[in-house]
């Protein structure tokens, strides 16, 4: 008798190749757009001071795009390799990290080649390469659906930011928030930033929920709720990591920008604080949204469709008020008298003693 092979957990199933390809293409396209745009803005200035400040402004976006691209491409490579052979945990992590490093080097070349003589662009390139490598290592974890959901959620965050920061959208919204004076403009921009972070978190959580639900249907079993929590907050977590890298590996760029003027120092500090706060909002709102979405799909215990129940057993039907079921008795042989009941020996002996008395 042959026993069926045990099925792997749904969270460890590889994502479809088409899903991995689409995610990698979208992430690479976004990273290429961010890097090319950053290079164009940096090289458009003839003044060295403006070139430094433009680099500082462009660095956080380039780092965020690089970490997502590294994770998406590494997930694609691991998915393609896994179709031919099963990868162990160590091999999977090594392949993901190596792929992320390769993506990081390619991303770093776009900015490093602006000026190879100074150390500033070397620091920029190193920061971008480190971000992509971390993304590749993240893709090496044995939770492919969660990686894919996080990647799609991060792209959703990028898309929300692209739409809201367009002049046709941002201008009217800021006017509605009271952008009519210098002090009011600061408050309006702060409210706009918080609102954008909340919408980004909602988008990341819902996208992650949809991706994981589809993965569960393909696997034939739903994923456990902690994976929805991780995927929903994954986009915010990657943004937090990007901000940490920007402040540490890219500290030289931020310091140089702060030396341009005291006003620029204050601006860089405010922007760093706002980016970190926004990332934390995206993390918590995304995780909360995914958990609420999962909770709405759960039904109370015992509240199931009647068609899903099997027919109740006979004993249960009798207890429910149906006609009682009589116990079956064995058929007696035809033509024979029923056997007389046996009298216990002790009772017969007692009767004889009473007669003698």
Automatic annotation (TrEMBL):
Ranges where the record places region Disordered: 300-357
Signal peptide stretch: none
Domain of life according to the entry: Bacteria
Record keywords, A-Z: Membrane, Transmembrane, Transmembrane helix
Transmembrane region(s): 20-38, 58-81, 93-114, 120-139, 146-164, 191-212, 224-245, 276-294
Biased composition (Low complexity): 326-349
Record-given protein name: Uncharacterized protein
Source organism per UniProt: Actinoplanes cyaneus
